[in-house]
Amino acid sequence: MKLKIRIPTVVIFAIFGAVAQPLSGEDTPKKKAVPNHVQQYLDSEHLMDGISFQYFYEDGSGLEIAFNEGKVRYEWVVGPRKGNKGEGIPYQSRSIGDDLYMVNWHEPKKPDFTSLIIDLKNKALYSTAILRYGTSAEMIHFKEASVKNVKRPSE
Length: 155
Prior knowledge:
- The protein has about 160 residues and is an alpha+beta fold.
- It has one domain: Lipocalin, CATH 2.40.128.
- The protein has helices at about 1-20, 35-45; strands at about 50-55, 60-70, 70-80, 85-95, 100-105, 110-120, 125-130, 140-150.
- The termini are far apart.
- About 10% of the residues are buried.
C-alpha cells in the first residue's frame, strides 16, 4: 500500500519539476539590454502624465507639448521652427513646489538635452537646452515662456 502512494507522488513531483525548469539553449528568451541613459528615464517619476499645454516665447515662437505614459511629445506651432517635432521621448520629472515641476529629456539622435521648469500655477515656463551638443551646430537655449491652454487628466 505504501508503494502505491509513493509512486504517484514521485510522478507528480517529476512532472512539476520538469515544467518548472527553464528552457535551455536557443529556446530561452533573451532580454534586450536597455542603455543606462534610457533606464534612468524608465525608472523615474512621470508626474506630468496626462497634462498638455502650449507655451510661447517672447519672440512669438511657440510649442504644443503633451506628457503621456512616461513620454513627451512636442511640436513647434509658431515661429521659424514651425513643424519641428519630437514624440515618444522618455522624460523624467520632479515636483519642486505647488504645481511647479522640473522636467527633462534627452534626444540622443539630434543630439539635444532639454530641461524645463514648469509653473502651472503662474502659467510660466523656463527652458534651458543644449541643442546639437558635440557638433559644430551646438547651441545653448535659455528662455522664458508663457503657458496657455493647460489640459489636465481630470478635464
